[in-house]
Design a protein that fits this description.
It contains 8 helices and 13 strands. With about 280 residues, it is of the alpha/beta class. The chain has a 6-stranded mixed β-sheet with strand order 10-9-8-11-13-12, sandwiched between helices. A hairpin with a 2-residue loop joins strand 2 and strand 3. Helix 2 crosses helix 8. Bound molecules: guanosine-5'-diphosphate, magnesium ion (MG) and zinc ion. The site of zinc ion (ZN) has 8 residues, from helix 7. Magnesium ion binds near residues 163, 164, 180 and 183.
Length: about 280
Amino acid sequence: MNGQVIRVISNLYTVKAGDQLYGCRARGKFRIDNITPIVGDNVVIDIDNNIILDILPRKNELDRPVIANVDSAIIVTSLKKPNLDLVLLDKLISIITYHNIEPAIVLTKADLISEESKKTVEDLKNYYEMIGINVFYNTELAEIKRFVKNKIVVLAGQTGAGKSSLLNRLDEDLNIETNEISEALGRGKHTTRHVELYEIGEGFVADTPGFSALDLKDISKEELKFTFVEFDNSDCKFRDCLHKKEVGCKVKEMVEKKEILQSRYDNYLKFLEELEK
Ligand SMILES: Nc1nc2c(ncn2[C@@H]2O[C@H](COP(=O)(O)OP(=O)(O)O)[C@@H](O)[C@H]2O)c(=O)[nH]1
Ligand SMILES: [Mg+2]
Ligand SMILES: [Zn+2]
């Protein structure tokens, strides 16, 4: 029978197959092949003996947390406490896009901002949607569930942004601890924590942060521009153009015409500089 690994605790694998959960061990063969099942794996199991017989090919695999077949990463972005951080948002979009994973944004704490700020946030939301990124408020639970449907999703975003609260809102039975101090201890902490996929609607969401801003360094300065998807529409005729100071650069023209958001372009230059160091 085919199923999906949704939890791993030492060498016990919880596999969801059909509507059932099976606690399985992995077949000895995997150790010889130097591969072990991980959360997100599509597997073939023997339900009479509770054994994972085979791991189907992975479409991708993340290291922190260890998880396979990730379809999307939702960047949980707070508008206040902590304040909206467009540098972090754009950085995470680039990192996620670079891994061929679909980024989406969930905005939190809109209840804490002024009416004027709401207008600015709406403009930003429209821009990110225009470049093809789904943007939701954390109050739009039905829409978020529709997005998650048939996907494996990881959450990203800074401590205190409202990731755990979002999961609790999506499934009132979860009762995940919010405002966790332990998260502030950094990414070392996450590697030791076990990963679990929560079933949300008809999709799966991982409980541990999927990406960190530190991962930007994996991208080369030549590759960075491809993670700013709207630059593609510029038809910049210079193949090697870094859209920086080049005369006649179409991306710069689009920024001047306000067709590309100034903060996106500024952040691009900022990341480029970081990668050039
Ligand atoms: N006012 C308000 N507070 C929120 C919202 N979402 C989360 N919080 C609060 O923000 C704090 C941090 O949330 P938490 O889910 O632990 O963030 P995490 O570190 O990203 O998991 C908690 O005190 C939450 O109650 C929201 O939409 N509005
Ligand atoms: Mg949390
Ligand atoms: Zn250019």
